[in-house]
Every structure is written in C-alpha cells, then in structure tokens.
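Exercise: predict the fold of this chain.
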Amino acid sequence: MSTEARGRVVDVPLESLPFVDEHSIVIAASPERVWDALNDVMFADSYARPALPLARALGCEQTERSGKPGRIGSTLPGFVVTRSIRPALLALMGSHRFARYALVFSITETPLEPVVLTAETRAEFPGTKGRLYRLAVIGTRGHVLATKAILHRVRGRAERSS
C-alpha cells in the first residue's frame, strides 16, 4: 500500500518491521472520542514543539507538522501517517539515522462499553549505531515511559470529553 502525499510516495511496510512491544489502556469513552483524543494528543503543539529538536537532531525524515490530524500523508515530528481507519486504527511511521519504526494505535470496543487503546511499536535498528540507539531508547525503558504517557494523555482527554 502506498499513497501520494505532497508529491512523495509513502510506503507502508509495517508488517516487515520487527515487533518491539505493545501497551494498552482501558478508556471509558466511545471509540470516536478516543480517536479524536488520540489525534488531538499526537498532533498538539505540546507534542510537536518538544519533538521537533529531537527529530532534527536524529535526522528524521519528517521534522514538521503538516496536513490534517489522522489523514494519510500528514506529518508530525518523527512520523508520517501511513494508515488511518477512523475510529479503529492510526499507524505512524518514521525513520532516522539509527532506526526505521512504526507506532500503531488500535482502538477496540469491549462488550461492556470501555474501549481498549493499544500502542504497538515495530522497529529495526540497523548496524552498530542502531544497536546502541536501541539500547539507549528501548533498553533504558525510555520508550515505554513515553508510550505510556501518550496512552494516559489520550485517556484523560477522551474521558474528560465524555
């Protein structure tokens, strides 16, 4: 699958990237509210501004926020939206000098009304520098903390808007 976005082709090899981890959170809100909250959190200035210097330092392909939240081809520092199925799936991909990666959010309804929001990370870290970067980001649990912070921010926003 690929899509044309501002004259560039965005390839979507999500499944070809190795699985890294997965984290979930239960949210007492409708899938639509969770979807809106997820896009609000990921595309907010509070995410984009602090992420911009890091994205530039790492040599990310995407360093700016562009397009509309949740729309294929839209970008935020470090990521491009590669799959978007409202209100069920938002896939973000990116790459920089040390890694190619994807962050895939899925929204699943449960029988008793709460929604489960899951963040799955897939990534490859080529070469010695990639392995060292993986150790610095994944090995220190920094990635886990950042991912869980996103999930908690989405839950807070979605439950407040219910």
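Check your answer against the key: The chain has one domain: 18-160.
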